[in-house]
Design a protein that fits this description.
Elements (H helix, E strand, L loop, with lengths): L4 H6 L3 E11 L5 E12 L4 E6 L5 H9 L7 E9 L2 E2 L5 H10 L1 E4 L3 H4 L6 H13 L3 H14 L5 H4 L9 H13 L5 E5 L7 H18 L2 E6 L2 H7 L2 E6 L2 E7 H6 L4 H8 L47 E13 L6 E15 L4 E6 L5 H8 L7 E6 L2 E2 L5 H7 L3 E4 L13 H11 L5 H14 L16 H13 L5 E5 L7 H18 L2 E5 L3 H7 L2 E6 L2 E7 H6 L4 H8 L25 E2 L10 E5 L2 E4 L2
Parallel strand pairs: 3-8, 3-9, 6-7, 7-8, 13-18, 13-19, 16-17, 17-18
Antiparallel strand pairs: 1-2, 1-4, 4-5, 9-10, 11-12, 11-14, 12-21, 14-15, 19-20, 20-23, 22-23
Helix pairs in contact: 5-6, 5-8, 6-8, 15-16, 15-17, 16-17
Length: about 625
């Protein structure tokens, strides 16, 4: 039974009063990015902070943890954890509190993990330092934590490095690390952004169960209103660094008072909204100042719908990518990770094929194999009639001008020492696509197309939020006007309004330039909006592929139905309903012994172009 509201106010786990954060500019002046933010979190309660990218959500969390650089930032107001003031604590005392009493899950798992250390060692180090465990005990506890966050083959993956994990699996490692010391307060900064819907459901269930077991409170930062509806008891809405609305989650969803809150709720993509249509469709854009739909939004013309062409821009046949597993540094082969197994599809000019599936199913490896960022084991990849696998390095570099990739982790794919303008200009200068005199104007045009200002070009990646960095990566991918773009979770880090803008931009570019997309995503509502065709992947294989309407409105494979059932709805009244998504099941491993024989794949056709894997 939850405590009365009066007690929660009197004895909060976290009390934030008048929090303001400013950053020092190059000219010495201070720019305020968070202004007069106040809220409290009671025991076993979850408070969600929502708002657009750049609204101050993550800076608020970093200010609470005192993780901002002291010389370049100034924090005002009060932050009390279990009654203890954090803003005046010596740093040694603050370091003891981090991990033990309060832990944080960061938005970008790859940049939060040390690439030189195994994932097992990094979690065990927390247990040794904060809980005084021996290495043997810490190793056993680490394996238990990895199993709890559904890492398959947890014991054998203890000694693997972060680059061997998908983005979603790296995020699960970060969650295990944050929960290692059973903190009283968990600050989760977009913890489910990189996760597919089924793992997202498992993660939310895990956090909720730990709340019940340990009395843990959660500060949940997110742009996903469906997640807010599922997990949050109270919600704080932030806009341009200020709190514009705050209250019980059910009340805010039922009766949003501020125009910006209404705009956020209106911009949430809804699964099933495309029923009865065959072509992709733009998102409605909402004005945050009024909460109303903007005028003069033309639909995607009917003639932009993909029509069959004589030759596809991309043709993949029996693509197979496996990674060897060796015992020790010089040991023999003891198995293989069957990341991609006999995948075949084609993409026409101006068409979008979406690859969907759980984290670790092989979506990203498929995209990287197409560009030969990972060398495939077998199969063929043909772009404009030319075999990519047969190309020599110089020829491959020239061919990549017409093929670009938007990576899942925007910070890891940007050089932290180069300005944003330099990052966008580099491919144009390298391939001779523009003169030095014309590059600057072209960079400004690209930044404007993705919703960023011209002065952005002079700043560095660390000065931007995760969503803003992803827009920079999209601008860079567009610089060479490629024929095909492989978008690996290109909009997963974006808030709902910017997500709508980017998807609309991609559709506009497709219509005007005939760009083809391989759209890799776990966001089923966005996939439904942008796709011509959809391929569902499971354990490295395509289990169902077909026209978007056929897959979404008539799913045939049990796994496809499971994915669709796990999509969260932006409705707090559904919180107590248990989705029939099979979230309790463990994820099978893609690791196979050396002598494993791959069974032959057989598909049955259930409709025109709609194929389902048998068996």
């Amino acid at each position: 039974m939850s405590a009365p509201a009066k007690d929660l106010v009197e004895t909060p786990v976290l009390a934030v009063e008048g929090l303001s954060t400013a950053f020092r500019q190059q000219d010495g002046s201070l720019r305020t990015v968070v202004e007069d933010v106040s809220f409290t979190i009671g025991p076993r309660r979850t408070l969600a902070v929502v708002g657009e990218s750049g609204s101050g959500k993550s800076v608020t969390a970093l200010s609470i943890m005192r993780l901002l650089p002291g010389r370049k930032s100034r924090i005002g107001g009060s932050v009390r954890l279990n009654g203890e003031e954090l803003t005046t604590l010596p740093m040694d005392a603050m370091r003891r509190i981090r991990g033990n009493d309060v832990a944080m899950i960061f938005q970008e798992p790859m940049t939060s993990l040390n690439p030189l250390l195994t994932i097992g060692y990094q979690i065990a180090e927390v247990l040794i330092r904060h809980r005084g465990m021996s290495f043997a005990a810490a190793r056993a506890e680490t394996v238990r934590l990895l199993e709890k966050v559904r890492i398959p083959e947890a014991r054998s993956r203890f000694d693997e490095y972060p680059h061997r994990f998908s983005g979603g699996m790296r995020q699960r490692v970060m969650i295990a690390m944050a929960l290692a010391c059973r903190p009283k307060l968990l600050i989760a900064d977009e913890p489910t952004t990189a996760l597919d819907v089924t793992i997202q459901a498992q993660t939310l269930d895990l956090i909720k169960s730990l709340q019940d077991e340990e009395g843990m409170s959660v500060l949940f930062i997110t742009h996903d209103m469906g997640v807010v509806a599922e997990v949050a008891d109270e919600t704080v809405v932030m806009y341009q660094g200020k709190t514009v609305e705050m209250g019980a989650t059910a009340d805010i969803f039922a009766n949003p008072r501020h125009p910006y809150t209404r705009a956020l709720l209106s911009a949430v993509p809804k699964l099933g909204s495309m029923k009865g249509t065959s072509a992709p469709s733009r998102f409605p854009l909402i004005d945050p100042a009024t909460g109303r739909q903007r005028e003069n939004q033309s639909p995607v013309p009917a003639d932009s719908e993909m029509r069959p062409r004589a030759q596809p821009v991309l043709e993949v046949k029996n693509l197979t990518t496996r990674f060897p597993i060796r015992k020790g540094l010089f040991g023999g082969l003891r198995g293989r990770v069957h990341a991609v197994e006999s995948v075949s599809f084609s993409v026409q000019p101006g068409e979008t094929l979406s690859l969907v599936g759980e984290s670790g199913c092989g979506k990203s490896t498929t995209g990287r194999s197409i560009l030969r960022l990972v060398d495939p084991t077998a199969g063929s990849v043909t772009v404009d009639g030319k075999d990519i696998r047969a190309m020599k390095p110089a020829e491959l570099r020239r061919a990549r001008r017409g093929m670009q990739m938007i990576f899942q982790d925007p910070f890891a794919s940007l050089d932290p020492r180069a300005t944003v303008g330099s990052a966008i200009a580099e491919p144009m200068l390298t391939h001779g696509a523009a003169s030095r005199s014309g590059v600057r104007q072209r960079v400004v045009e690209l930044l404007h197309r993705v919703g960023l200002s011209a002065e952005t070009a002079q700043r560095f990646p660390h000065e931007f939020s995760g969503g803003q960095r992803q827009r920079i990566c999209i601008a860079r991918a567009l610089a060479l006007e490629p024929k095909i773009i492989i978008a690996d979770e290109a909009v997963s880090a974006l808030d709902v309004s910017i997500k709508a803008q980017i998807v609309n931009l991609m559709l506009d570019l497709q219509q005007s330039l005939g760009i083809a997309y391989v759209f890799i995503s776990h966001d089923m509502a966005v996939v439904e909006r942008i796709s011509h065709r959809v391929a569902v992947m499971y354990l490295g294989r395509i289990v169902e592929i077909g026209p978007r309407a056929a897959v979404f409105e008539n799913p045939q494979h049990p796994y496809t139905r499971k994915l669709l059932a796990a999509v969260p709805a932006a409705d707090p009244s559904r919180r107590t309903m248990r989705r029939a998504s099979g979230t309790e099941a463990d994820i099978p491993s893609a690791i196979r012994p050396v002598d494993y024989r791959v069974p032959e794949l057989a598909f049955r056709e259930v409709g025109e172009g709609h194929l389902v894997l048998q068996g």
